[in-house]
Amino acid sequence: MLPHVPYRQWTLSFPHRVRWVLLKDAGLLSDVLTVFLRAVFALQRRRAQRQGLRGGQVGAVSFIQFFGSALQVTPHFHSLVPDGVFVPREGGVRFEALTPPTQGEVERLLRVVRHRVLRLLDKRGTLPAQGPEDALLAYQAHSLQQRLRWTEVDVRPPPSKQPRCAFLEGFSLHANTHLHANDKQGLERLCRYGARGALALERLSRAEDGRIAYRMKRPLPNGTTHLLFTGLELLRRVASLVPPPRTNLIRFHGVFAPGARVRPFLVSAAAAPGEEEAPASDAAARAMCRKRQRARRLDGAGLLGKRFAVDVFSCPRCGGRRRVLAYLTQGSVIRRILRHLHLPEQPPPQAPARGPAQQALWE
Fold first, then answer.
1. pLDDT of residue 281
2. For 275-321, how does the pLDDT look when each residue is reduced to its tens digit (9 = 90+)?
3. Which of 62, 174, 244, 349 could tie 26 with a disulfide, CB 3.0–4.6 Å?
């Protein structure tokens, strides 16, 4: 879906007291993301106006992550933003690249985001944060704090100065990751990084004392390279990384939003060169987008093959191909066929529900 244009990744993380609030309220997390992207989009439009571009539209694809490389709870945002603006024109849109943001612009943007986020949290009455209320929140609080008390503000010294990176009172903003328009592999790698899972299985190993060792992405300041867990401790840590229910971890904003008027043009621009010609009108672009969506739909056999690697149309005896003769929906016809094949007509009885395994310990 992403058109072939340059991209810049904007990564925003928060101090400990704000992280705890965002963990407890998924709706507030969405509002904070909106505050952040509005500030980024405003910066993009101002930079476009300085280049003489009026009416430019912007967009972003945001990945919400609740974990860090050391299996700690740390909600933060990875927003993939085109490094330019889309200018509407007759029969389509035109992309205009922008100059990279300066260090001063990134620092000013972080000051604006910090002020607006704290003002939003204060308006909602969520600061100071309250303590854990159930077992899952207690696990998250323990994973969030590690060696700090969960009520403390992050007072660690800021990392070494990097270009287009800013740090302010626990808030951090990184905007130095840039991709060229032709770097398709880099764009895919960056999207996979944003949508990755919390636990990397290749980093797990068995320590000499029998515990489970997890190799971190980078060593701690004291030189520690692995985290050691018992089985129960690892389950508690992984349980704390589960995102809130009914929370979309990938969000589309601006021109990439589902209802954006220019989205059909961007989808057509994301096609491979020579695959299809660009539509001549807005109606043609929408029709082409609907055609692509219909073509991507899979039937039940295709979904089973994609999910479980099972080809239901392949005969296990002769290796030939099966074909669908008819779809049977009448119960009487189905029962007659089952009787002819000497198969049971009634489904097997369901086993009674069982309680949790831990319940046997208390009986």
1. 52
2. 444 444 555 555 555 555 555 677 888 888 888 888 888 888 888 89
3. 244
**3-class DSSP string for the chain:** CCCCCCEEEEEEECCHHHHHHHHHCHHHHHHHHHHHHHHHHHHHHHHHHHCCCCCCECEEEEEEEEECCCCCEEEEEEEEEECEEEEEECCEEEEEECCCCCHHHHHHHHHHHHHHHHHHHHHHCCCCCCCCCCHHHHHHHHHHHCCCCCCCCCCCCCCCCCCCEEEECCEEEEEEEEECCCCHHHHHHHHHHHCCCCCCHHHEEECCCCCEEEECCCCCCCCCCEEEECHHHHHHHHHHCCCCCCCCCEEEEECCCCCCCCHHHHHHHCCCCCCCCCCCCHHHHHHHHHHHHHHCCCCHHHHHHHHHCCCCCECCCCCCECCCCCCCCCHHHHHHHHHHCCCCCCCCCCCCCCCCHHHHHHC
- Is residue 93 classed exposed, middle or buried when 0-12, 13-18 and 19+ CB atoms within 10 A define those classes? buried
* Predicted TM-score (pTM) of this structure: 0.68
Report phi then psi at 305, rounded to 5: -65, -35
The tens digit of pLDDT for each residue in 183-218 reads 999 999 999 999 988 888 888 899 888 899 988 888
